[in-house]
Structure formats: structure tokens, C-alpha cells
């Protein structure tokens, strides 16, 4: 069985595959050891291919403290470097490190062109090899660093959201609960919001959450957030809708700060 990975996909969707209730925190074998992995690029081998990932440790890494492990996947035609460094469309690691209070280790893996769209890097997961890559990364990181194995998360924008959803579904499947945070623009021409609502509703049903009717809409240039009620314990669901296009850079009126990072953090920090 694959290890649990709480996944957030997106357009922005956080999902979790494990039963989070009543589980004793499992500490990785890297706990208590001097770290043999540092900030920056590393490689892992999956399906015979050596592939890159970039890692960011918290300030003052403490080898005895079990940290969250958060995967941040790049979109189509993006890269590990794009997400790690940030660019005009995204803050570094989707804006999560500044709000994480040094309680998390971030990892941004590199996709591949093989099997992807238009010769651009993505997450086609041909023959399941992107999932094998994620497993290989986790094995490498967790042997070297102290991770709370009940607190693994995944997020990403666009194709990066799709691979997060795929990872979450492996542990559960669309009929099983997946804790999720999903954020979407009404004016998305790439992944129209109707499709995002369908995915959301599948997950809401799986989680036993009470749907909200009528459909919520953004309040002009301010996003609207729904924290669903009635969900199975340990499988929360949050939906955020904004007026805007296909981008992780969306900020509410009166702010230049994208809402994604702080919103993701508020969602995932309820798991501890
Ligand atoms: C994991 O590590 C923390 C911090 O050292 C400790 O308090 C906890 O008991 C450990 N959990 C297990 C299951 O060993
Ligand atoms: C893909 O990314 C490269 C490098 O960032 C950029 O020059 C190119 O225009 C992008 N292609 C598309 C189709 O967006
Ligand atoms: C940040 O983490 C430290 C422990 O490492 C804790 O003492 C402090 O209260 C945290 N701050 C916030 C704002 O959560």
C-alpha cells in the first residue's frame, strides 16, 4: 500500500487520503539523524529515470521535530525551479513558506515532457511513473529528514492540481473521502469552472458534506469561501471561488497578496 499523502489539488485542491482521527503520529526514520539533505536540487530514481526535485527546509531545522511534508506541483510547461523560485505567475512554493511558521518542509518535483501535452513538461503519469517518482522522493526525504508521516500534503496549480488529485485518489478513489481545498476562478478559460464544480461535488458526496445551494458566487472583486458542514470527521472540505482567470496569482480587491498560500495554509494547518 502506498503511504498516505494528504493531497491538495488545484486549480487548487487540498486533499487528504488518510483517516486522520485517532492516529498516533508516525515519525520518519530520518528523525534524530543529522540531515543529509539540504535546501536545493536533488534527484530520485523512478522507473529507471533520474529526475530532479527541489527542497526547502525550515529555518533552524531541528532533527528531533517531526515536520509536515508538502508537495507543490508545477503546472503544464512549468518546472520545479519555477515553483521553487517563483515567477510572475506564482510566489515561491505557492506562497506557503512565509505562512508556515517553519513547521513544514517543501518539495517541488520536476514533471516530464514524455506523454505530456504539446512537448511541454507536465504530469501525464504514464504507466504510473509520476506516482513512482513521488514515492521515491518521499522515501529519500523521509530517510534523511524528520517528517510526521501523518502530515503529508500535496498541492499544485492546474496540471499540478490534477496530479495532486490523482495522488489523493490513489489512497481513496472518488467514492472515498479526500479532505480537500479547492480554489477556482469564474473566468477560467483553460479549466472552466463547471468542471471544477463537478469535481468538488464528487468530493463533497464522498466526504458526506452538506452541499450549499444556490451555487455561491464571488462578491465582486472579493473571493467567497465555503467551509462545508456535515463532513465525515477528518475529511474537511473548503471551496473558494473568485472572479478571475486561470492563475494562482489571484488577489482580492485592495490587496496584492495572492489568496492561495494563506488559504491553503489555514486549511492544512487544521491537521496536526
Ligand atoms: C514523534 O516525535 C515526537 C517529537 O519527538 C514525539 O513526541 C512523539 O512521541 C513521536 N511519536 C511516535 C509515535 O513515536
Ligand atoms: C513555455 O515556457 C517557456 C519558458 O518559460 C516559454 O518561453 C514558452 O512561451 C511557454 N510556452 C507556452 C505554450 O506557454
Ligand atoms: C510558531 O511556532 C513556534 C514553535 O516553533 C510557536 O512557539 C509559535 O507560537 C508559532 N507561532 C504561531 C503564530 O503559530
TrEMBL record:
Q: Its Gene Ontology biological processes?
A: xylan catabolic process
Query: Which reaction is this enzyme known to catalyze?
Result: feruloyl-polysaccharide + H2O = ferulate + polysaccharide
Q: What is its main location?
A: secreted
Could you give a GO molecular-function term held by this entry? feruloyl esterase activity
Keyword flag Transit peptide: no
Q: Which residues form a coiled coil?
A: none
Enzyme class per UniProt: hydrolase
Q: Which UniProt keywords apply?
A: Carbohydrate metabolism, Hydrolase, Polysaccharide degradation, Secreted, Signal, Xylan degradation
**Annotated function:** Involved in degradation of plant cell walls. Hydrolyzes the feruloyl-arabinose ester bond in arabinoxylans, and the feruloyl-galactose ester bond in pectin. Active against paranitrophenyl-acetate, methyl ferulate and wheat arabinoxylan.
Q: Which family does it belong to?
A: Belongs to the faeC family.
Give the protein name, as stated in the record: Feruloyl esterase C
